[in-house]
Amino acid sequence: MNTQKKADRNLLLFFVITLAWTWGFGFIPVIMGIEGTPMGTFLFYFGGGAPSVTALFLVFLTYTKAQKKDYFRRCFSFRYMGIKWVFKIILFFSAVTLTALIIGAGLLGYEMPGMDYIHAVIQNPFYLLLVLFFSVISGPLNEEFGWRGYALDRLFIRYGFTKATLVLGFIWGIWHMAWYFTPGQAQYDMMQFSPFHALMWIPSTMVFNFSVSYVYIKTKRSILAGALVHMFSNLLGSQLLSPYSAGMSMTLRYTTMFFCGCLSLYCIFSPRFRKEFENVSGSTWHKSPS
Q1: Given CB 3.0 to 4.6 Å as the disulfide criterion, which of 93, 127, 201, 210 pairs with 236?
Q2: Which band of pLDDT confidence, cut at 50, 70 and 90, is reported for residue 179?
Q3: Closest CA to 229 of 130, 139, 155, 168
Q4: E strand or H helix at 263, and its extent?
Q5: 68: number of CA atoms within 13 Å, CB side?
Q6: What is the pLDDT, as a whole number, of residue 283?
């Protein structure tokens, strides 16, 4: 089997296992009617770790020693991204959230979010460490070893920047299908408010994925940088604002979609960024593991 066919096979295996695992354990509580119970909650969150666990299994099974070293260095080292990208990511999603609050509360009249976590941190600054911990494990840790760490390079090689970003964004979006049927999840709450706006989660995730792919390329394929985009999007645009109304959730979603849509247009049409992408692909991906 040639290298490209082997890479395609392993990538397909990654997606099949990840989706089957997450959907299987995510829908069991719904089918059995045990959502919200300790067992139902355990099964739901057990399914959520599928992207990272599946990817790590394939990495240890198929990568050489040098490839494993490169993979984990890109997962944890700041050498690729530099500290400046942390501030750029925070600034970007702070702008998104502030704009959404102005539109939602100021123009559309939705109630301001409760911001319970922010009030708790003000009362006890050490609580911020707990907030950051939950922010890390509720997305970046259980997903990014897989989405960016394992799948993205292979999709770039196979489809190029734009199509690969859209394909991964679509898979990432439908991966959340069990969330639509699980009380307490944002997708479930949005479905009660408006099925149309709830289903817009999938295209919005595809557009949002451009911001992750953009930072991933700009930081020379830093998996850590991609995880930070995921983390600060959740933290600044959802977790720190909670609780908030479905209307405000919709506003946050569409505002994020607008900002990321503008960035996606830059990625698609900018000759400068296209050259950066080609330079990264030409200098590194010919050595990527199959």
Answers
A1: 93
A2: very high
A3: 139
A4: helix 246-269
A5: 10
A6: 63
